[in-house]
User: What shape does this take?
Amino acid sequence: MTGDRLTKAAVAERALRLADEEGLEAVTIRRLAKELSVTPMALYWHFKNKDELLLGVVDHVLSDVRADPDAGDPWQKRLRVVFETVVNVMRAHPSLPVLLHAVDKTRAESFTRATNDTLALLTDAGFTVEEGYWIAMHLLNSAMGLVSGQPGCPPGTPDAQTAEWRRKKQLEMSLLPADKYPKMIEYAASFTAEPDLDHYYAFCVDLVIAGVEAMAAAR
Assistant: This one.
């Protein structure tokens, strides 16, 4: 890719891929320029420094998180779509939680737009704008927590080692004192097979959204 064809989105996409594969510390202007076969100066045309680069990556990856306040669906359905989109983005990009903590995300246009639209949904539901903001941040942190706490092997475990990891985990839990932890031992049996991640995420999305809906209904 030559410098004159290099777009801001292309730079952000390659930086995101690098962060997902090797960690955020791998994302530097020099390394990214090498990945894109351009000079560092070509990147400085789009981003003045690494902070701007990381902010651009956040803005790029959240660009599909939208909550159109003028859509015809009820607020409950639109809020669920927003939350599911955030969860799916988190699943696809394991570097995103670290990125969100590394930058002032409120400076990212896509984050501010999505938050503003979500506040509009939640005020339609009867919450104050302040309560809506608390809920919006809870949803964001819940999405991070769902991904970081998903069942199964730790992220990055090679496929060839997953069965052995599950075997050791099951053995470790099954050796707990049965008189103290009977349910934990019962749960250990779940490690005999790969977890159903689609069911896990659908269940957890239901759990979180149900809480917001219940609070709104109680008003």
The CA atoms of residues 158 and 165 lie 10 Å apart. The chain has a mean pLDDT of 89.
